[in-house]
Design brief:
It is a single chain. By secondary structure, this protein is of the alpha+beta class. Helices cover 49% and strands 19% of the residues. It is built from three helices and two strands, in the order αααββ. The chain has a two-stranded antiparallel ribbon with strand order 1-2.
């Protein structure tokens, strides 16, 4: 086991969800918030926090998503 899932969930909530939830993405970022750009931001933010992230998948809908990998 690399990391306890409850600890990971807490970190993702703190670093990503709380920063973006119920906010206009154009007001949060200084770049155009495409799904690709936001996924890259999430990946970088989690890695910079020291989390052992190797992939982030962000969905736009039930059949579309983007993945960022290490």
């Amino acid at each position: 086991m690399i990391m306890d899932f409850a600890d990971l969930r807490e970190q993702v909530d703190h670093l990503v969800v709380q920063a973006l939830d119920h906010r206009l993405l154009n007001d949060v970022f200084d770049f155009v918030p495409t799904v690709e750009a936001v996924a890259g931001w999430v990946f970088s933010r989690l890695r910079e926090a020291g989390l052992p992230v190797v992939r982030v998948r962000l969905s736009e809908g039930p059949n579309t998503y983007v993945e960022v990998t290490a």
